[in-house]
């Protein structure tokens, strides 16, 4: 776990309350978002240059101010990054794609107004993101709008919008199939070209917090649950549930933090799931439940697009771990 190959990418000020972190495949850039502090500061979204020796990180660009970012994906070539925001009252819309110069390239909307039956009771809405393995398509899901939108990553043009989304989304490598979580804990799969419904599967979870397709598209992992669980689906819909092996590692899956920060990744060595709440964070092997890594409360993390690195916040700053070594 902690002795696996890793390196500190950059240090952050102790008052920088990280809400999202992401890196491209070569770890040449660090995206870090600071969440709302409750004193009127909604946070900033920064591109940073990795430098573990500097007391403060060297900034490349400020992508957004007075904005709370909760999800981010770099394109496979590392030339652009797409940000999903939380709407904490500033009227923030859908995902926005930026170049590494900090300039916005385009954005796209997800659905319409927040759904009147979303049960939010004034809760914060947010956007979850994914992209196809080839980087041609982006997808965003919003629990507030209860919708999912698939867009061309180069232009932001929306190609498909479907209802009944709960946030978490995934695209297969070619972008031909879309998977999305539904509000009732089920997962649906559709064709992206026609929008045709292919399957809807029951996960047995009250809510799904993350999704990922296998590299060959024949498998899908859905993650959630107080006892962190990965539901592995075959193309035929056969389900295998994998629960984190350490029974003492429980998560409050009802927390917004858990819904926003849970991530899933499926590499050539298998699937992995990261989840966190107000007390702890855990990364586990989704094939056998083996604990790969643990962290403190309110840790945020992500996987590089190629699934080779696990990037996480911590007391020292932002650190990248070799996922192959952890698995």
TrEMBL record:
It comes from the Bacteria. Gene3D superfamilies: YVTN repeat-like/Quinoprotein amine dehydrogenase. This is WD40 repeat domain-containing protein.
């Amino acid at each position: 776990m902690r002795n696996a190959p890793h390196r500190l990418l950059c240090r952050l000020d102790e008052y920088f309350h990280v809400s999202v972190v992401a890196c491209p495949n070569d770890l040449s850039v660090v995206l870090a978002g600071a969440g709302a502090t409750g004193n009127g500061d909604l946070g900033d979204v920064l591109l940073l240059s990795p430098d573990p020796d500097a007391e403060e990180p060297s900034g490349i660009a400020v992508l957004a101010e007075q904005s709370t970012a909760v999800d981010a994906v770099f394109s496979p070539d590392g030339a652009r990054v797409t940000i999903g925001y939380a709407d904490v009252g500033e009227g923030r819309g859908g995902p926005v794609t930026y170049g590494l110069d900090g300039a916005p390239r385009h954005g796209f909307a997800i659905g319409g107004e927040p759904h009147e039956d979303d049960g939010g009771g004034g809760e914060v809405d947010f956007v979850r993101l994914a992209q196809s393995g080839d980087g041609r398509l982006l997808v965003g899901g919003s629990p507030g709008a209860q919708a999912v939108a698939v867009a061309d990553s180069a232009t932001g043009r929306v190609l498909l919008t479907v209802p009944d989304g709960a946030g978490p989304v995934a695209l297969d490598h070619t972008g031909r199939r879309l998977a999305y979580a539904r509000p009732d804990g089920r997962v649906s799969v559709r064709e992206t070209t026609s929008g045709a419904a292919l399957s809807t599967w029951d996960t047995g979870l009250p809510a799904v917090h993350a999704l990922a397709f296998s590299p060959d598209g024949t498998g899908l992992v859905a993650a959630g649950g107080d006892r962190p669980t990965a539901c592995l689906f075959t193309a035929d819909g056969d389900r295998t549930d994998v629960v984190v092996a350490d029974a003492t590692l429980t998560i409050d899956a009802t927390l917004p933090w858990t819904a926003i920060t849970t991530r899933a990744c499926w590499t050539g060595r298998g699937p992995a799931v990261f989840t966190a709440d107000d007390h702890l964070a855990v990364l586990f092997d989704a094939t056998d439940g083996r604990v790969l890594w643990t962290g403190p409360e309110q840790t945020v993390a992500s996987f590089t697009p190629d699934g080779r690195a696990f990037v996480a916040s911590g007391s020292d700053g932002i650190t990248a771990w070799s996922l192959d070594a952890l698995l």
